[in-house]
Amino acid sequence: MIFLRLFWEFFKTGLFAIGGGMATVPFLFDISARTGWFSASELANMIAVSESTPGPIGINMATYVGFETAGILGGIVATIGLVTPSVIIIVIIARLLARFADNPVVKTVFKYLRPAVIGLLLFALWQLLPLTFLGDDRNILVLPVIAFAVLLFCMLKWKKIHPIAWIGAGALFGIIFL
Amino acid sequence: MSTPAVPEKKTSLLTLFLTFAKVGVMTFGGGYAMLPILEREVVTNHGWTTSEQMLDYYAIGQCTPGVIAVNVSTFIGYKTRGILGAIVATLGMVFPSMLIITALASVLKMFQDNDYVRKAFAGIRVAVCALMISAVINLVKKAISNIPTAIVAVATLLLELLLGVSPVLIVVCAVAFGLIMYSYGKRRADK
């Protein structure tokens, strides 16, 4: 039955893809090769589409692949399949964490984990830079750089404004000037 | 690190669902790009967790299976309303994606080739970069308190830039470093 197989394939992807959205991509190529539900070039399209719609990429991919394979219910089943393993695992970890939250060893470990996350955040930003500020011939695009500086200045000045307003401003800037 | 799942003021499951659905709609790219919006909604607006704990969740979400954005949502949901909260927050997070992708699936290829959509996303990326910088500025104060923590942040960035080390390995190394710092601190205190 297609729904059970969809659930199972995405359950496995959710269980083994460690490290977020893009980590699911190799698993999806594997699903494509084994099941023939979609071709590799369709998958390339799906990745592009997932990147240009709201929501985490991994989730968008699961919904899209499921929908293309078996309709609306397929999209739901694939997405639920993808998140089921991590929900179970996170709940177990959260319970353990609640029990050991005040343990001094755990506290110290987290104290040193947090700066590592800052480093990873900066690296994620670094990967976004060429995509955002470099043109096709690798030259720096002046307008986005100026918009970036203006947006950052405004964000730091008016901290109460919701991030989505800045995203909206960015979209508007793109439509008008890019 | 979470307190047991019985907060003083009970958050309704509907609020939980709607808040995470809101974050899901406003997330472009997922993972770390989502952090500024998640922080605004969950820390500033609802006070369900702190910035520090959110970084903890990211660290754990990074080295557990699944999509990071979802893992962090599950965590905060559990902290707020227990297992049911974990499920509801997760469903809230994925709901907009399911709706949007399903609604747009047939026209998605057209949508993606549309010039205005392409330009809007080029502009959104600029805003996301700026938001991530402002998130870093805010979080640095909370996560970097002394020289060893600064070293961890810089070393992480360098290892990623120069060697492309797996983030899972980064987390493992940071845990090891934390354990070393703990035993070092304890030995000094014992003297």
Keywords, please?
heterodimer; A: 178 residues; mainly alpha; B: 191 residues; 79% helix
**What is the count of DSSP helices of chain B, taking H or I runs of 4+ residues?**
8
Which regions of chain A contain 5 or more consecutive residues with pLDDT less than 50?
A: none
Q: How would you describe the shape of chain A?
A: globular
As an assembly, this protein is heterodimer
Question: What integer value in Å does the Rg of chain B equal?
Answer: 19 Å
Strand content of chain A: under 5%
**Beta strand count of chain B:** 1
Average residue pLDDT of chain A: 88
- Overall pLDDT level of chain B: 88
- Helical proportion of chain B, percent range: over 70%
The low-pLDDT segments of chain B are 1-7
Helix content of chain A: over 70%
Report the sheet with the most strands of chain B, covering strand number, pairing sense and barrel closure.
none
- Count up the domains of chain A: 2
Q: What is the H/E order of chain B?
A: HEHHHHHHH
For the sheet with most strands of chain A, the description reads: none
Structural class category of chain A: mainly alpha
Class by alpha and beta content of chain B? mainly alpha
- Count of extended strands of chain A: 1
| Terminal CA distance of chain B | 30 Å
Specify the number of helices of chain A.
7
Descriptive account of the structure:
The complex is a heterodimer of chains A (178) and B (191). Chain A has 178 residues and is mainly alpha-helical. Chain A is built from 7 helices and 1 strand, in the order αααβαααα. Chain A is 80% helix and 1% strand. By secondary structure, chain B is mostly helical. Chain B folds into 2 domains: 142 residues, no CATH class; 48 residues, no CATH class. In chain B, 79% of the residues lie in helices and 1% in strands. Chain B has 8 helices and 1 strand. In chain B, α1 packs antiparallel against α2 and α1 crosses α4. The longest helix of chain B is centred in the middle third of the chain and has 37 residues. Chain B is globular and about 70 Å long. At the A-B interface, α1, α3, β1, α4 and α5 of A face α1, β1, α2, α3 and α4 of B. β1 of chain A pairs parallel with β1 of chain B, so a sheet runs across the interface.
